[in-house]
Amino acid sequence: MSIIKKVVVQAAALSVLASAGSAYAYDVTLKPFTDVTHEDWFQNEVYSLSAIGIIDGYSDLTYKPDGTLTREAFVKLLMNAKQENMAAGTVVPGTPVDVEQGRWSYPFVSAAYERKWIDFMLDSQGKFHPDNAITREEVASVVGKALLDAQTAEARNLWTVQGWQDEKAKSNFADSEALNPNLRPYAYFAVNQGIMEGDETGFHPQQSLTRKEAAAIIYRFIQTEVAARELETVGFYAINSYPAIKHMPQLDQVSFGWSHLNYATPGNAQLETATTEYRIPSGWEEVVQTANAAKIEKSLMVYYGGKNLADFLKDGPAQQAFIQSLKAVLTDARYGFTGVTMDFEGLMDASSAPDYSQFLKALKAAIPNYPLTVAVQPDYYYKGYDLKEINALADTVILMAYDFTHNDSKLPSAPLPLVNDAVKRALAFVPKEKLVLGISKQANQWITANGSSELYNPDIAAVEKRLTTPGITQTMSLPYFLREIAFQDDRGSHDIYYEDTASVDKKVWLAKYYGLKGISLWYMGNYTESDWTLFQSK
After folding, report:
1. Span 232-257+339-345+356-537: which CATH code?
2. How do residues 272-290 score in pLDDT, each as one tens digit?
3. Which of 64, 147, 290, 411 is 20 to 30 A away from residue 475, measured at CA?
């Protein structure tokens, strides 16, 4: 396998990570469950829900898939899946008398009760019995009620009058008469929507629900909402992206990586478009014409990651000169740019945050008719991005939720639990309607020999070729949701984590789950035909 780049020094954040004395300096679960294997039918569901924080395991790294679930535990799962806002301290009149306000499940049970999803579970004394094991009949009914709530009044009426009876005849469960007659309309709606099913012996309404069944049900419940959501797709046309030019019609916006900040001396800076890999390429006319024919937005991406970025953000004259040179290119009618994407990277010190916001404010004032997109790095170590201020200035914010790579621990670039956590942190300041999840098509390769390991970034084409060769093992690494490839050769043992089509798909799923504005693809030339087929299907 050819290697295009040995990683000598990772991002500055990695040195902080290493000095923390921990392989994983993040408050997320990055270890697999010991009792959920690749052979288990519920593996995808368990790890997907774990990645987005809906389900938890135990301190001994087990999930206990065959354990039963209580009523209150299932209600919590459902309310979290719905992403319902349950304000702490809110008192709901009439909440079950045996779910006190101080109980851990109170916010979830009270929210579900307020929506009339669990009223059928209360006994004659108004008790919910939260510790009782929940039955399949109860699960189907509460899920059915939640699903019907999202329907129109007309659709609900049609279902409760006749629709459920048609589904009952279609399903033909051997024990259908064992279902509570009052709950049948709701239970059968859960069946109709593909959330629950029976087997050859029946639906088993009084059977307790297991934790693995709960994971499958909640995952399917989420899928009913995720499937209907649409995402905008931004493609970064940069570096070696010409082979992907034919896929521009699949995009909503293309961001051309054709420029960067040139800041060599104090007081002077300009937009550079003729040197380094971030330059306007020869034959650019064909690319612009293709974008125009596809009728998509065209943004100019401006990159900089130099160590003196913080100095530039304190250099007023240099900023003014740079903004004027950027404006000249941005308004050049030959290109027809419709916006600008600022990709200034490496701002770790919080003292840079107000300077960067002030720069963006000046830039916005100079180009008021051009939508401004700002790419930011996750805030674990990059404190120089004030997301609250950036949100106020930018039309779109791209979260570059990748490059978590850590050499010593072999932590790959974009494990799903970390991507999820980065998104949740960003959503505290940027509304979902404005936030775009950045996805980077890349691979991390560790070669170990004589007791030491070195980290490389292999070429995507080389990884794809390696996948087809004999003598390798490959699995979907969980909880990372990245393709893991292992093999041996004369250089040593190789471990590769690869962002393949399946792992990209899971990140698209995550973006849809949160209802984000869209996804961005860095960079178009790295994505395979299988990836583009995925985007077309979505």
Report:
1. 3.20.20
2. 999 999 999 999 999 999 9
3. 64
